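General statements about sequence and structure are easier to judge against a single worked case. Part of our work consisted of pairing the sequence of a single chain with a tokenised description of its backbone. The amino acid sequence and the backbone structure tokens for this protein are reproduced below.

***
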Amino acid sequence: MAEDLQYLIDRIQKEAVDKANADSAKIIAAAKEQAASIVKAAEAEAAAKLAQADKDAAVYAERSERALEQAARDVLISVGRRFEAMVTDLLALQVEKSLSEDTLKAMLLALVKDYTSDVTLVFSESDKAKLQSFAVGEFQKALNAGVTVESDKGIKFGFRVKLDGGKVSHEFTAPAISSAISALVRPQIAQIVSNAAQGK
């Protein structure tokens, strides 16, 4: 009887141990499966974040490149404008220096062939005093028409020719001549700035 009891105890213990071992194996397997799932999810999340970071970096790099290109264009435009303003100022200064009394006389005589009717010549106040006798003398004789001489405080250098009772006028003033020369020079200035930008 004692043997049967011992056998029964041993058997109960063995079944309990076997059941505990089976339960622990299931728990370990479930834990391993859960850990593998967590690792897989973490890897997927890390890969997604890495891919997003790559996309963000590419977008940032593209934006930065565009911003740099725009900044470079802005600098070139600014430099071009400043260069053009400097050249225009120099041209204006040279034109003013060039519009001496002798130059104005030569210009007027060169224009005689373009006019066949009475004209009004408008000078600065100081040039009117210097050129009055020339205008109503040699110029009028070459023109073979009537000449009226006036002054305008708005004119500093050069002159204006008025025709048809003032309805038509041609400007030969310093600003008009400078503007005309600047218009001719602008394409060359743009080419110089463009060549400088390209390192030529």
The first helix runs from residue 2 to 98. The chain is about 75% helix and 10% strand. Helices lie at 2-98, 101-111, 125-143, 174-197.
